[in-house]
Amino acid sequence: MDARVQFRQLFSFSATADLRLLFVDDDPILREFATVHLASETMSIETAGDGAEGLQRIAELKPDLVLLDLEMPRIDGFEVLRRLRDDPATARLPVIVVTGREDTGAIDRAFDAGATSFIAKPINWRLLGYQIRYVHRTCANEAELLEERIRISRARAHAEAGLRAVAREGSRFLKTACRTSPDLREAAEDFALALETAVAGPETPG
Q1: How many Å apart are CA 81 and CA 72, to the nearest integer?
Q2: Are 52 and 76 within 8 A, CB to CB?
């Protein structure tokens, strides 16, 4: 497939999926701009004026992605991130930090607090729109992979538990058979060894 076609597909995935965004910033003009520039047929946007209101709106709206300023009254963006990551319900919620702070320390602190991505002010709204789509797609894919790993792990544990149960019952039966018929002892020992090997799984190379 042509690389340009792949690139267009990468950034057009959200055309078939509605996204709910929350823009958290204490600047009322930026909140208005966000509503104008980001709202579309496939993206709805709500706003909050500070971190405390943002946390409340997140609990109420359960957005797909949050756009978060760092420097705000009452509760700043760093504390919002910390609380989101400490809550299992929002631990994996995508958060793009949108701030005028470009120093390395602020960027490092934001990512350490749990930011998913980062974009500096003044905002390039078209670029931000693409970044929202990309971040949401990446996080959705990661969530699907995690769910698949959990499903496989549970299925494997269930299968291993069943195999262990079969091994126990088989071993009990063979011991009984060996006591009544010594000629079966060698075959029983081979079968028991095969069961133990199957339960233990293949050896991992050192």
Answers
A1: 13
A2: no
